[in-house]
Amino acid sequence: MESKRQTSTEDHTEAPGPTRLTLYAGLSTCGDDINASRSKSPAPLTPTGPAPTAGDDRDPSLPRFRLADVRKHDANSGSPWVTSGDKVYDITDWVAAHPGGDVILQAAGHSIDPYWAIFTIHKAPHVLQVLESYCIGFVDKADLDDSGKPLAEGGIEDPFATDPKRDERLTVLTQKPCNAEPEAAYLAREFATPNELFYVRNHMWVPVVDVEEAPKHELTVELPDGEVRAYTLEELRTRFKIHHVPAVLQCSGNRRSDMTKSVGPTNGLQWGAGAISNAVWEGVLLKDVLRDAGLRTGDDVGATEDDPPSDSLHVQLTGMEAYAASIPLPVAMDARGDVLLAFGMNGKPLPRDHGYPLRAVVPGYVAARSVKWLSRIVVSDEESASQWQRRDYKLFGPNEGGKPNWDRYPAIQEMPITSAITSVLVGKDVKSCTDKSARAAAGVRDLKDWQDKNWVDSPKGTPVEVAGYAYSGGGREIVRVDVSVDGGRTWDQAELLDSPSRNYDDAEETQKKYVVARGRRDWAWKRWQYKGVLLDKSLDQSLQREQGHEILVKAVDSAYNTQPEHHDGIYNVRGNLATAWHRVRVQTNDDKITIQGCGFPDKPPRK
Ligand SMILES: Nc1nc2c(c(=O)[nH]1)N[C@H]1C(S)=C(S)[C@@H](COP(=O)(O)O)O[C@H]1N2
Ligand SMILES: [Mo]
């Protein structure tokens, strides 16, 4: 078994996305073809490089280029160049051959080095070799400083310099690109996660769109027949019916660190339980826009030879910074699917981190499909060619290892069921608990005193209050949440707080605040709460006090799907869909309470 769980040393981390993309792209076709590329004739804009000057002892057979000339070879030039160190590269063929080459285009006309420094895997020697095959010459000596480096370029050196500031209550996994999750204690305090606490999962930098420019932000829609229609954001807002849809976004890597800890190493960002959040999204339906653009196939149109069955078609969604993914067309066209082109989040414009000014929201599906900074839609008979569609978000068997056959399984789309504990209050904290003030307990508590005063009628033990979230994909409603506070020996049902399917007018007075809007299916999470007793050792022989009390949660959805007991059986090298029962350990030794488990920080949470 051990060997099956070993991951390869090859890095498949999600964090520095674009790196791997170019790495993969470069290796897939250029690896054996270095000489062929080198002999390519120069791009049309290529100026004749001046002859090497005195004091320049670099390879005299290669031409020299002024930086001003390199600048002309920007992303729009048709023949993009980059520099790295004092060398000049023509990346035209590289970009053309690889859809994901868009990422490298960000550096066109400039030095690629700042990007490489950020996406550290780029420094892998074999990638350098691939770039080497596109070398066309050197930066002219006149543009080099004394140490032989190109003179500093104005401005754009750090593509992350313009990223927004993030809330201090987010735990930052990586800064550039930003990946951050709210501490567990903040996660499920409210039905709608406040925008500033919503988890952030960026593969690259945050594109800059000025407020004045936003209404003119353009979305192009390309249909299978090649027809292209462009919409401004202003046009989307004013010409189509606006919808409000409460929906969870959850990364396929949510709780990956839990799988790692309980089974073995996984590649990717080691998320706690907070790569999930819930918001009320405002936007127009993707299906309305596709129809307006002239799409004739769909859920309600019979397939003919000229009108192919729509499930062979895909809606490719591309963001401004080059991230891309796709969903099957029937998902987009589903009359009850609520797939949005969203511009609002919890009553405010989308924050920059979450896709300003326009993003896709695909409720019930893995958040990787909810493309942010959306600028292009293509309806195609192919899935998106991006690595985020074809590689990263797939689920392999426990034995399939670090170099799986990527094409063997479909991309993750609809999400499975999951649940997690986000708050545990023990002893005297229980009394003062409301859903607003809930926080993870930490520090010294006077338990005995509390029990004497407040828990006289209870069995001998320590009161505990547990809260968290439960969510299932595909619009399936959460119908039950089971909690155990004694390691699974006995179970009880938690109270479900949010009731999106219940009519507000029928709800009991005390429950009214939990009755919330609902989409056409159940796309939102349900928060839950449970009060119980951690039994004293004298009453619970099975308790091993040294290890503390184990609190467990698992949920059930309307299709009676439930979660696996352990991560062992669903272990996969990418650490995707870590949905096993969530386990938290509570120790009350010497009246000091410690809580351990995925999502619970070692230090007390910030207030
Ligand atoms: N353009 C773009 N869209 C994107 C991403 C990205 O990096 N760029 N990340 C995807 C992934 S993997 C996730 S989990 C969600 C995260 O959305 P959020 O940052 O709003 O929580 O956005 C998705 N859409
Ligand atoms: Mo994700």
Which small-molecule species are bound to the chains here? the ligand Nc1nc2c(c(=O)[nH]1)N[C@H]1C(S)=C(S)[C@@H](COP(=O)(O)O)O[C@H]1N2, molybdenum atom
CATH topology of the largest domain: Sulfite Oxidase, Chain A, domain 2
Number of helices: 14
User: What are the low-pLDDT stretches, counting only 5+ consecutive residues below 50?
Assistant: 1-47, 120-124, 298-302, 432-447
What's the CATH C level of the largest domain?
A: Alpha Beta
Distance between the termini: 44 Å
- Number-wise, the strands total 27
Could you report the average pLDDT, rounded to the nearest whole number?
Answer: 81
Q: Architecture of the largest domain in CATH?
A: Alpha-Beta Complex
Q: What integer value in Å does the Rg equal? A: 27 Å
Look at the helices and sheets and give the structural class: alpha+beta
Query: What is the oligomeric state here?
Result: single chain
CATH level-4 homologous superfamily of the largest domain: Oxidoreductase, molybdopterin-binding domain
Shape: globular
Number of domains: 3
Main beta sheet: 6 strands, antiparallel
Query: Roughly how much helix do the residues carry, as a percent range?
Result: 10-25%
Strand order of the largest sheet: 19-27-26-25-21-22
Strand content: 15-25%
